[in-house]
């Protein structure tokens, strides 16, 4: 059976990281077994660190504040990803702008909490909640030099209901994210 390795990058809570580990790590599908080669976190106190450990993976901590230049941090990331032998890198709540040093060397996908190309950037959930649009959703897309601008791979949407609170809206987004990201990675890798 072919083993396909991925790397997961995260910065915070790590609920998506957890779902990826639960649904994909060491799991065998029709054409491959997926293995999370390593996880990488840029914040030394992120909650997700324990979640990764729970699955037996000690995350590599690359604290971005210790790097003088953005490019230096990205170089360290690229080096660690190449060393892992992973063919796909997954940004699961990884809150860093990435330079061409990363985007030109790493095949990566990102999870974004809006129906791209709408609501790019860090305030997507708030902006989509407060917009007059009746439909909201999430996207998985390839990482390119443009923030949240690479080709879209998969999306899921839902209807905003009358009187929906921000908390309900946010939790709906997370429920969909937890389904769509593992499913999309499986579909990308589980091919002959
Ligand atoms: C998710 O909403 C994701 O779309 C965004 O950051 C959040 C990460 O959440 N990029 P978690 O750390 O996976 O819980």
The arrangement of helices and strands along the chain is EHEEHEHEHEHEEH
User: What about the largest sheet?
Assistant: 8 strands, mixed
| CATH superfamily annotation | Formyl transferase, N-terminal domain
**Helix-and-strand structural type:** alpha/beta
pLDDT < 50 stretches: none
Radius of gyration: 16 Å
Q: How many DSSP H or I helices?
A: 6
Mean pLDDT: 97
Q: Strands, helices and their partners?
A:
Layout: E1 3-10, H1 15-24, E2 27-28, E3 33-41, H2 48-54, E4 60-61, H3 70-84, E5 88-91, H4 100-103, E6 108-112, H5 124-130, E7 135-142, E8 152-159, H6 166-189
Parallel strand pairs: 1-3, 1-5, 3-4, 5-6
Antiparallel strand pairs: 2-3, 6-7, 7-8
This protein binds 5-O-phosphono-beta-D-ribofuranosylamine.
Q: What would your notes on this structure say?
A:
The chain is an alpha/beta fold and 192 residues long. Strands 1, 2, 3, 4, 5, 6, 7 and 8 form an eight-stranded mixed sheet that branches. It has one domain (3-115, 139-156, 178-189): Rossmann fold, CATH 3.40.50.170. Helix 1 (15-24) runs parallel beside helix 6. Strand 5 (88-91), helix 4 and strand 6 form a beta-alpha-beta unit. It contains six helices and eight strands. The protein is globular, with a radius of gyration of 16 Å. The model has no long low-confidence stretch (mean pLDDT 97). It starts with a strand and ends with a helix. 35% of the residues lie in helices and 24% in strands. The site of 5-O-phosphono-beta-D-ribofuranosylamine (GRF) has 14 residues, from helix 1 and strand 6.
